[in-house]
Amino acid sequence: MRSSGPLSFFLLAALAGSAVAHEPVAQDPGVDIDLNTTEKVHGCWEGPNGELEGGVFYLPMDKDARAVIEAVEVANRGVPDNRVDFVIVGDGYTAGEQAQFHTDATAIANNFFRYEPFISYEPYFRITQIEVVSPESGVDNDPNQGVSRNTALDMSYWCGGTERLLCVNVSKAYTAAASAPDIDQVIAIANSSKYGGAGYPSSNLGTAAGQNSAAVEIAIHEMGHSLGDLADEYTYGGPTNYSGNEPSDANVSIYDRDEQTDQQRKWWQWMDASVSGFDGPVSTYEGGNYSASGIYRASNNSMMRSLSRPFNLPSAERLIRQIYLEVDPIDDGTPNGSVLERDAMAWVQPMQPIGHDLSVTWYLNDQIILSAIGQTQLDLSTLTLLDGENTIRVDVVDPTPWVRNETIRSNFMSESRTFTVDVCTPAADLTGDGNVDFFDVSAFLTAFNNQDPTADMDGDGAYTFFDVSSFLVLFSAGGC
Ligand SMILES: [Zn+2]
């Protein structure tokens, strides 16, 4: 492991930092860390002034974790699924305590969707509770260091020497979660009321204490990290002045509002926005990502800075993008690429957020069908189709104003399906009723006798044997 030196240093720093509030804890060392053996973990908890503190910790990773996660993902691949799947597993719950596990897990599930965008997008989520039986009740180092318990997932407080850092064996958590229909995020809850938690963004996993009153708030904050890849917006735990590169996180930036606006960076489209349900107004507020200066956050306060606050708008936009990485706008409908009969019914079932509908627009040969705007089914028999191949397309788009980056909307929040309809009018169908039959013969003979142009099959202006012959050939052929 090439980074063992810095890693040891930073674990020591974590140990040292745990004793005094607001002292630096393990920080991003800015050097390569081997993420196969080391896990970058967020530990965030409420400090004395109500703001969060803690930071980034580098913990040794159980060696099978990457392989186990990949195996679980491979096993789930191809399973029909169009939801963000949260899987809750419990640790330190004995066989006789599974009812308590469900009580704790249900409390988290029922209260998770209390801030936007989770309130509106709750129907996009599915939460599965998986019973895990531990030999002993409770988890390690609860209530004090040195308490050891034999549990299924090896959850432990005082992880890396930090009291509130509640860690878990990632491979065991994923192995336990594997029986869920699908896994996008794992939440491991400890049978404990002791305050603590941790977020494992690269493993899509978070931990929480099952019976702590702040467990839900911590779980929401951790999902900000692991689902939204969001940075902490508090100012403790790192160098006082941030001097690094622009972080990838959507909610912190080294660029102030003028630079963002001029250069169209990060949340430039959100400057001064203030929307009910979100922390704001949006601007650039100095301090964030564990540093007090040299970096900006998007709102003065927010869920990524304090518990019991909503997310700010740039964070929400990012979360919506991440939700749409797992969920397609069209939940069900006529399969893409279908060849349809001209009297068929095409349909879509869009996803249904709370409070607004996805827009549904139908096109016939690239022309909007005005009468079908917003409709989830289209009766093709009502359309005036061209002879030959017709293309029907339906576009489903989430028009939420909580996304202003139209690239995100077009890349992740839009879905189209295209169908084709072949129309052919048989040349011998002189009556135009769609069938080639005796009535067409009769119509031909009448037209021929009347020297009606309908009977001039070869178009030479005369009514001769050649027209009769042409008609008979077309009649025998039947269709097109
Ligand atoms: Zn955090």
Give the helix/strand class. alpha+beta
What's the CATH architecture name of the largest domain?
3-Layer(aba) Sandwich
- Give me the CATH fold name of the largest domain: Collagenase (Catalytic Domain)
Weakly predicted, low-confidence segments: 1-27
Distance linking N and C termini: 71 Å
CATH class of the largest domain: Alpha Beta
What is the CA-atom radius of gyration, in angstroms? Answer: 31 Å
Give me the CATH superfamily of the largest domain: Collagenase (Catalytic Domain)
- Determine the fraction of residues in helical runs and give it as a percent range: 10-25%
Number of domains: 4
- β-strand number: 18
Explain what this protein looks like in three dimensions.
- The protein is of the alpha+beta class and 480 residues long.
- The protein folds into four domains: 4-226, Collagenase (Catalytic Domain); 252-325, no CATH class; 329-423, Immunoglobulin-like (Sandwich), CATH 2.60.40; 438-477, no CATH class.
- The protein is 24% helix and 21% strand.
- It has helices at 4-17, 65-76, 98-111, 118-121, 170-177, 215-226, 257-263, 313-326, 406-412, 438-449, 465-477; strands spanning 38-46, 52-60, 84-91, 125-130, 185-190, 197-200, 205-209, 252-253, 285-288, 291-297, 330-333, 339-340, 345-350, 359-364, 367-368, 377-379, 388-397, 414-423.
- It has a five-stranded mixed β-sheet, with helices on both faces. A five-stranded mixed β-sheet has the order 12-18-17-14-15.
- The longest helix has 14 residues, at 4-17.
- The radius of gyration is 31 Å and the shape is elongated.
- Residues 1-27 have low confidence and may be disordered.
- The structure holds zinc ion.
- Zinc ion (ZN) binds next to strand 1 and helix 6.
